[in-house]
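User: I'm writing a tutorial on reading structure tokens. Could you give me a worked example: one chain, its sequence, then its tokens, then a sentence or two explaining what the tokens reveal?
Assistant: Sure. Here is the example chain.
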Amino acid sequence: MLCYHQCMFQGLEHTALASPDPKRLAQWYVGHLGFRINFEYDGNFFVRAPNGTMLEIIPSLGPAASPAEMRTPGIRHLAIAVDNFDESLAELRRLNVHFLGEPYSNQGNRLVFFADADGNFLHLIERPQPLP
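And here are its predicted structure tokens:
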């Protein structure tokens, strides 16, 4: 049974974000994080990160249900892996990204939380050792 599930389910193909302006948000990921728009249809934008992961940015309908906070239910952040934390942090600062706090270390990992153009939470992470 274990092999059946491991062979059938390959992993996350993409994560969707709803935005009042999908094109603007897609361009934010291109301009700030080096993603590229790899597919577009009917106002939906797929953006691909250099490591192959993807976000689908879809048109939102209506206002947000409530303001998101770090621990409210639902997807709370997207972690952006970096090779050089200090250079990545400096580049985001140069681009006037809105940071949610100061950089810190946790279990040997370096992190800093920030928001994209729609206020979705992201964080940079540099791990000395990959997760198992």
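What the tokens reveal: The chain has a mean pLDDT of 92. Residues 22-33 form the longest helix (12 residues).
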